[in-house]
């Protein structure tokens, strides 16, 4: 077995260990809260969308699509040596780009998705510029721009443009199905299959983009240059690579991916934005961090880890509220995130175990 394949298998095994421990901790917490219903509650979390199929599965698919994109956003930055904690803000700006181009400009869905992508890219490029030309840590600028983006979007959606985006009756942005039906992403019969109103081809678009990002990072010269800057900026500069340009491009691409995630979710008609109560950043932007960590920043792995996180989150929504809060699912994900920091430790233990086993056989 090649070293690369062995390392991949060890990484997958370490991630599975994190998942199992996280689930066990979740079960213990359920037992502490209400032991009589712990088994039922845990089975609902494990079943996820399958607990209420086919509608639950459709809901899981709808949530997984944007989660794949925010996970890719964080993972892409990780691969290039940057920490994009600004995916939530880039996602929020993408929401505005998608809804404005749909409701006000009445553009088709694929153009709206492109606008959402460009909006997120612009917002992501700003921390990249500060990092590349002023050596300002991208974590600090990303956090600042998260909140700037949130309140800017709230203001624009609520009072901007004469309130044309805002529905006074629902206190949310206008429903796309009635205000801009041409901007809704096609479902190709998925809504009928899953008995939902927001299960579209968004999941297939997200998976396709993940494959493209994998090819970009691993099979192209451009991807090699981006990763080289991440590994060693000085060495990359010595090799003739423009590290400043690549830092800006890395953050812009990361922002574009988060913006696409917003477009995939809101252009599917899954929800409307409520600027009056949206005083917290979208959780889906921050959930991209555990998705990327769990996948070891592998774009293909991001698809599976995003589906898993969506699966657990949907399962948490089906917990009996008389005994438990749905946020228990978030707690399980949080434990898994924490354990991801020990993945290297788990891999080290496994490597030592196999090494001792091999030396024992050779000794005999």
Task: Please summarize what this structure is.
By secondary structure, the chain is mainly alpha-helical. The chain has 16 helices and 2 strands.
Describe the 3D structure.
The chain is mainly α. Helix content is 73%, strand content 1%. The protein has helices at 3-33, 38-47, 55-79, 87-104, 109-134, 138-158, 176-179, 190-194, 202-219, 221-231, 233-238, 243-266, 283-294, 299-317, 328-340, 343-363, and strands spanning 166-167, 172-173. Strands 1-2 form a two-stranded antiparallel ribbon. A hairpin with a 4-residue loop joins strand 1 and strand 2. Helix 4 (87-104) packs antiparallel against helix 5, helix 5 (109-134) packs antiparallel against helix 12 and helix 14 (299-317) packs antiparallel against helix 15. The chain starts with a helix and ends with a helix. The model has no long low-confidence stretch (mean pLDDT 90).
Key phrases:
two-stranded antiparallel sheet, mainly alpha, 364 residues, 16 helices
Helix content: over 70%
- The rounded distance between the terminal residues' Cα atoms is 22 Å
**Major sheet: order of its strands?**
1-2
Report the sheet with the most strands, covering strand number, pairing sense and barrel closure.
Answer: 2 strands, antiparallel
Record field, number of beta strands: 2
What general form does the structure show?
globular
Beta-strand percentage range:
under 5%
Give the count of helical stretches.
16
């Amino acid at each position: 077995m090649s070293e690369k394949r062995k390392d991949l298998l060890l990484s997958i095994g370490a991630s599975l260990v994190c998942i199992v421990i996280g689930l066990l901790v979740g079960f213990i917490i359920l037992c502490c809260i209400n032991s009589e219903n712990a088994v039922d509650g845990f089975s609902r979390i494990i079943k996820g969308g399958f607990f209420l199929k086919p509608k639950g599965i459709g809901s899981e698919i709808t949530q997984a699509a944007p989660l794949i994109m925010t996970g890719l956003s964080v993972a892409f930055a990780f691969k290039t040596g940057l920490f994009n904690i600004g995916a939530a803000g880039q996602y929020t700006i993408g929401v505005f780009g998608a809804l404005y181009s749909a409701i006000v400009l009445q553009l088709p869905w694929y153009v709206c998705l492109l606008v959402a992508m460009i909006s997120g890219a612009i917002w992501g490029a700003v921390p990249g510029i500060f990092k590349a030309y002023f050596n300002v840590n991208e974590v600090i600028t990303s956090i600042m721009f998260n909140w700037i983006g949130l309140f800017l979007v709230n203001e624009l959606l609520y009072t901007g443009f004469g309130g044309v985006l805002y529905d006074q009756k629902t206190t949310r942005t206008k429903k796309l199905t009635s205000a801009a039906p041409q901007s809704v992403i096609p479902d190709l019969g998925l809504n009928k299959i899953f008995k939902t109103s927001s299960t579209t081809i968004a999941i297939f678009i997200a998976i396709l983009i993940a494959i493209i990002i994998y090819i970009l990072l691993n099979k192209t010269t451009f991807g090699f240059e981006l990763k080289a800057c991440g590994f060693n900026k000085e060495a990359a500069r010595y090799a003739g690579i423009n590290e400043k340009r690549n830092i800006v491009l890395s953050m812009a691409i990361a922002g574009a991916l988060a913006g696409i995630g917003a477009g995939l979710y809101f252009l599917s008609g899954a929800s409307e934005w409520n600027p009056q109560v949206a005083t917290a950043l979208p959780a889906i932007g921050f959930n991209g961090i555990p998705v990327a960590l769990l996948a070891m920043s592998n774009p293909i792995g991001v698809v599976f880890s995003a589906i898993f996180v969506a699966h657990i989150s949907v399962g948490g929504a089906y917990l009996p509220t008389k005994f438990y809060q749905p946020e228990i699912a978030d707690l399980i994900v949080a434990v898994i995130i924490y354990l991801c920091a020990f993945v290297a430790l788990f891999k080290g233990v496994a490597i030592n175990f196999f090494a001792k086993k091999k030396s024992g056989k050779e000794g005999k």
